[in-house]
Structures are given as structure tokens and as C-alpha cells.
Amino acid sequence: MILVTGGAGYIGSHTLVELINQSESVVVIDNLQNSTELALEKVKEITGKDLTFYQGDIGDAQLLKQIFEKHPIKSVIHFAASKSVNESVSQPLAYYRNNISATVTLLECMAQFNIKNIIYSSSAAVYGDPVYTPMDEAHPIGPITPYGKTKYFGEQILADLAVSDSQWNIVMLRYFNPIGAHHSGLIGEDPLGEPRNLLPYLTQVAIGKRKVLSIFGQDYNTIDGTPVRDYIHVVDLAKGHVQALNLIQKQCGLKVLNLGTGKPTSVLELVSRFEAVTGQKLPYQMMPRREGDAECCYAAPDAALKEMSWKTELSLDNMLEDAWHWQSKNPNGYN
Ligand code: NAD
Ligand code: UDP
Asked: Where are the beta strands (DSSP E) in the chain?
């Protein structure tokens, strides 16, 4: 049985589907600070299976103990965190509290119950400004924002834990840019308020909820002047967690792995593929660079292939089709 923290969120809900499809039993804990229980209802609808849900905070040691006493949890997949880069700059303490302190509480409770298998959601944000591309796991570390630092400190805490006790099996996954949605159109990304990320903003423009997409910067040293990223289908990302669980069964110790496609895509390339795939004309305007944006960031995903036989299967067109299917089927997200 697997405990999934933050399972009602964007990546968590997609991972639940893949876990349940592999016949794993799952227990979810989520405080719903950035999600809704409806996502879990949709997961049940997609899979035709039930799941156990606790609405609560991973910083609540009493609740965690109740869960570990009641369910035979073998491994934890730890998604629960606050993830807004902007917000982390204005509210660093809230980010250190939620992403670091609550993670320590979770790890203490796991150790107490002798549960020593964990998959941790890290991020390409730990690398900071790219020094070379594609970026492998040995790329220099240098997170720029409090959010990126919390992800990196989380990695460091786990690495120290692995040194202190060799029974721990820890897979830290550094995600690149997850986009898209489950093919059913029943679950997807549902940001609160004005989206900051490219894809939700773009699909909200396409559906008419927002007037125009601003493209931040056209003077980068890239194929067409706009910044380059490694967009990965959220379903491929979710499947990476199933593979990481298999890796943990082999008593893998500590591993850190990139999850990306290894394929660079510029903002203008993505916009043009979106128009081609969906037939939607997308109004956009060129704007100055957004502060803090890297020029070009994409993964070397070879280690994940070697260590856990994982590679992406879905194309950029699949990502855009599925993101548009979710947005057009649910113009107001889960509401
Ligand atoms: P999300 O906000 O959709 O999901 C996170 C979930 O955790 C939410 O349902 C939220 O309510 C819950 N949560 C937050 N704090 C909690 C707490 N203290 N106790 C219980 N539940 C709590 O985010 P996501 O996009 O699904 O991201 C999942 C993980 O992946 C996060 O750790 C994030 O930092 C990491 N990540 C995300 C991206 C991305 O672009 N989406 C990229 C790299 C890494
Ligand atoms: N971007 C953009 N307009 C937007 C949002 C994002 O041009 O409204 C660009 C942004 O400059 C970056 C890319 O899209 O180059 C991906 O941005 P996102 O915030 O989704 O991811 P991240 O910056 O974290 O890689």
C-alpha cells in the first residue's frame, strides 16, 4: 500500500490513476490548499476503483500516525508542497514551513513506523541558471528562488537521511515542465486565479477566458529568440513514479533522476504547434523578458532510462491535444 501526499493535486491525481491501473492500493493525504476533492472523484471514475482519502496536513504528526497505524503503508510518494515561484519570493517563511518543516515531520513519522521508502518530487528549479544543456543530474546546483531552494533543501535532508541509515530507499525525481492532462479529459491542471505558467495561460486564452497570451522575451539566443524548455506530458511523468516504485523494490538506496523528454521547445514553437493541432488561432503579443527566466533549459533523461527503464512516450502534439481537451471540456476547471 502506498501513501500519496498531495494526491489531489495536478501531478498527484495523474499518478494515482497510473498506480491504481497497476493494481496498487493507495491512501491519499491532502489538505486541499491548492486542489479539490473532485479530482479524487474523477480518479475513481477513470479507474473504476476506490481509494482512501484523508483531508489533512502532512505537518500534522498525529494524523500521520493514525494513518500509519491503520494502513500497512510500504512506501510514500511525496508530492505535497506549495509550488508558486512568485509567491515563494513574497512569502519565503510560508514556503520553508510547508515544504521543509512539514517534510521533516513526514520523515520522522515514517522512521518511527519503520517505513523507509520514499519518492520525492524535486524540480529542475534546483539547477538554477543553466550552465550547459542538456542538463544531466551532475549539472551544478543553484536554485534562485525560495521555492527552488525548498526543493533542494528537501533533497539535502533526504541525502543526509540516506547516509545516516542505509535502510532508506529514496528516489528524488527532478521534473522539467509538466503539461497536458489525462486523455479522458476528466483530470487536468486547474490553477487558482491567474495562471503564471505558460500552458494554462495559453489554453485560457484559446477558450476566451483571457484576451491575449504575452510571450516574455524575443531576444534570447535561441532558435527564434523565445525561451526554450523541456515540456513533458503529465501522464509520462506519472508513469515515472510507477517505475520509481519498482526501483525502490530493488533496494536502490539514494537515487536522483531527471524526468524530462530531452527535447527542447521554444515558446513560439509551442504556440505554433498548439494552433496546428487544435485549429485554434491564438492571439499573442511580444513582451519584454520576465524576470528570473532562464534562456534554455532541457533535460538529459538518460539516467532514468538506465536506472529504471523509463522514457517518455507521448509527443508535444499529444500534450497540447490533451491540454486543450481538458480545458475545452472543463472551461472552469473542476468547478
Ligand atoms: P499541486 O499544487 O497541484 O499539488 C500539490 C498538492 O499538495 C495540492 O493538492 C495541495 O493541496 C497539497 N498540499 C500542499 N501542501 C500540503 C500539506 N502541507 N499537507 C497536505 N497537502 C498539501 O502541484 P503539482 O503541480 O501537482 O506539484 C506536485 C509536486 O511536484 C510539488 O512538490 C511540486 O513542487 C513538484 N513540482 C511541480 C512542477 C510543476 O510544474 N507542476 C515542477 C517541478 C516540481
Ligand atoms: N511564458 C510566456 N508567457 C506566459 C507564461 C510563460 O511567454 O504567460 C514563458 C516563460 O517566459 C518561459 C516559458 O513560457 O520561458 C515556460 O514558463 P513556465 O512559467 O510555464 O515554466 P518555467 O518558467 O518554470 O520553466
From this structure: 2-5, 26-30, 52-55, 75-78, 117-123, 169-175, 177-179, 213-216, 228-229, 231-233, 254-259, 265-266, 284-287
Strand partners for 3? 27, 76
- For 95, the enclosing helix (H) or strand (E) is helix 92-95
The pLDDT assigned to 292 comes to 85
pTM of the model: 0.98
- Residue 226 DSSP one-character state: S
- Is the CATH code 3.40.50.720 the one for domain 2-180+232-262+299-313? yes
Mutate to test the pocket of ligand 2, among 198, 270, 296 (most ligand atoms within 8 A of CB): 198
Ligand 2 atom nearest residue 85's Cα? 24
* 210 φ/ψ angles, rounded to the nearest 5 degrees: -130, 150
Among candidate residues 228, 198, 230, 231, the one with its CA nearest the CA of residue 215: 198
**pLDDT digits 0-9 by tens, 209-218:** 999 999 999 9
The DSSP-derived string for 283-301 is -EEEEPPPTT--SB--B--
Q: What is the pLDDT of residues 258-283, one digit of tens each?
A: 999 999 999 999 999 999 999 999 99
Q: Which three cell numbers stand for residue 196?
A: 503564471
Pocket lining: 284 vs ligand 2, CB cutoff 6 Å: no
Cα distance between residue 214 and residue 256, in whole Å: 34
Report the DSSP beta bridge partners of residue 120.
78, 172
Of all protein residues, the one whose alpha carbon is nearest to atom 12 of ligand 1 is: 6
Q: What is the pLDDT of residues 83-127, one digit of tens each?
A: 999 999 999 999 999 999 999 999 999 999 999 999 999 999 999
SS3 category, 184: coil
Largest Cα separation within the chain, whole Å, is 57
Bridge pairing between strands 284-287 and 213-216:
parallel
147 in catalytic set: yes
CA distance 331 to 242: 30
